[in-house]
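Project outcomes to date are best conveyed with an example. Our students and postdoctoral researchers have been running inverse folding experiments weekly, and each run begins with a structure described purely in C-alpha cells. The record below, which covers 334 residues, was selected by the lab manager from last quarter's runs and is presented without edits.
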C-alpha cells in the first residue's frame, strides 16, 4: 500500500511556513558573493554533527567536535565517540555530493547508513536493514520482514509526492516516517535527521548549507522525543509534529539571519576582514557575554600571543572592547 501521510495545515503552520519563506529570502539576498559564507558553512556542519550525535548520547562537546572537524586527533575521546562524529561529517559530505540527484533509491539510504554507522555499531549491520524486532521506549516498530516494503513505499512518496509540498513539510514528514519504520538495528536517529536535511538540500531550501536545524532538537531533547511519540499517540496524525518541526526551522533561520546581519555590520568596518578564528572569537563573545584573556586562549586553542594577534584588529576596528583593570579585565563585544 502506498504511503500517504495524514495531517492538517493549521493557521499556525501556514503562518510559520510564510515566516520561514520570508526569512529564507532575506538570507539568500544577503549571502550573495560574501567572504564569510565558508565560515557559516563550517559552523553549521559542526553544530549539526554535534547536535545529531549528542541527541543519541555522544559525549563530545561542541569544541571537541570542532577540533575533529579541523583534523585534530583528540586522544582523550573514546574511539566510538570520535568515529560517530567523523562518520556524521562523512554523511553530510555524502548528501551534499548527491543533493542534485533527481531520485533517491533505497540503495542510497543503505549507503548513507553505512557511511554514518561503519565502525560505530555492530560489524555487519551498517548499511543493512535489521533482521530482528526492536523496541524504542514503549514503541514497537514494524517487524523486520515489513521493513523493505515500507522503505520502498517511503522512497516512492519522497520521489513522487514530496515535491508537491513545501520542503519544510516534506522534510519533517520524511523524518518522522523513517523513524517510525526504524529500519536499522542502530543509527536510525542520525540517519533520519540526515535524510531530512538531504530533502532540504535537494529542494534548494538550504542553498549554502548554513542551517543547523538539529541544534533545535538537541536543545530540548525530551521535547523532541515527546513530539515523535505524540504522532503515534494520535494514530499517525502528523499535524502537531509538522508545527513543531516548522517552528524549529523558523528559529534556526532567525538565528542565521541575526548572525548574517551582525556580519554585514562588521563588513562595513574599514580594513577588517575576519579570519576563521576571529569569527569564532566573536561567536564566543556573543554566547558568553565577556571573556577573560585565559578563557579566550583556551576557547580558541591558541597561545597568549596568538589571542592578542586575533584581538588587536577587532579592538582597533571598535568591534571588541576591553573592560576592567589590566589584571582582571575582560573582553566584550563593543
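After processing, the design step wrote out the following sequence:
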Amino acid at each position: 500500500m502506498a504511503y500517504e501521510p495524514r495531517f492538517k495545515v493549521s493557521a499556525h503552520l501556514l503562518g510559520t511556513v510564510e515566516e520561514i519563506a520570508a526569512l529564507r529570502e532575506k538570507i539568500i539576498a544577503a549571502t550573495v558573493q560574501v567572504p564569510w559564507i565558508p565560515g557559516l558553512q563550517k559552523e553549521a556542519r559542526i553544530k549539526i554533527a554535534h547536535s545529531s550525535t549528542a541527541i543519541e548520547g555522544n559525549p563530545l562537546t561542541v569544541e571537541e567536535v570542532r577540533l575533529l572537524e579541523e583534523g585534530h586527533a583528540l586522544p582523550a575521546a573514546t574511539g566510538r565517540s570520535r568515529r560517530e562524529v567523523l562518520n556524521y561529517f562523512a554523511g553530510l559530505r555524502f548528501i551534499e555530493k548527491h543533493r542534485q540527484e533527481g531520485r533517491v533509491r533505497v540503495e542510497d539510504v543503505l549507503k548513507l547508513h553505512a557511511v554514518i554507522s561503519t565502525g560505530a555499531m555492530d560489524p555487519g549491520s551498517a548499511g543493512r536493514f535489521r533482521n530482528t524486532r526492536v523496541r524504542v521506549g514503549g514503541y514497537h516498530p514494524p517487524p523486520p520482514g515489513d521493513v523493505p516494503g515500507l522503505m520502498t513505499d517511503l522512497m516512492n512518496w519522497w520521489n513522487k509526492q514530496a515535491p508537491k509540498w513545501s520542503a519544510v513539510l516534506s522534510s519533517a514528514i520524511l523524518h518522522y516516517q523513517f523513524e517510525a519504520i526504524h529500519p536499522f538495528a542502530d543509527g536510525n536517529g542520525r540517519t533520519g535527521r540526515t535524510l531530512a536535511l538531504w530533502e532540504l538540500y535537494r529542494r534548494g531550501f538550504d542553498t549554502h548549507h548554513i542551517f543547523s536545524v538539529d541544534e533545535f532538537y538537541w536543545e530540548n531533547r525530551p521535547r523532541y522525543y515527546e513530539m515523535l511519540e505524540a504522532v503515534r499517540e494520535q494514530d499517525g496524525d502528523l499535524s502537531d509534529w509538522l508545527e513543531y518541526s516548522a517552528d524549529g526551522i523558523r528559529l534556526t533561520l532567525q538565528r542565521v539571519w541575526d548572525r548574517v546581519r551582525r556580519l554585514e555590520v562588521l563588513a562595513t568596518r574599514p580594513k577588517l576582514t575576519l579570519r576563521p578564528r576571529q569569527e569564532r572569537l566573536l561567536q564566543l563573545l556573543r554566547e558568553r557575554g565577556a571573556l577573560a584573556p585565559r578563557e579566550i586562549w583556551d576557547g580558541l586553542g591558541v597561545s597568549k600571543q596568538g589571542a592578542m594577534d586575533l584581538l588587536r584588529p577587532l579592538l582597533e576596528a571598535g568591534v571588541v572592547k576591553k573592560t576592567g583593570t589590566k589584571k582582571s579585565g575582560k573582553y566584550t563585544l563593543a
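The chain has two domains: 11-265, 276-333. The beta strands are 290-291, 320-323, 330-333. The training component of this project remains on track.
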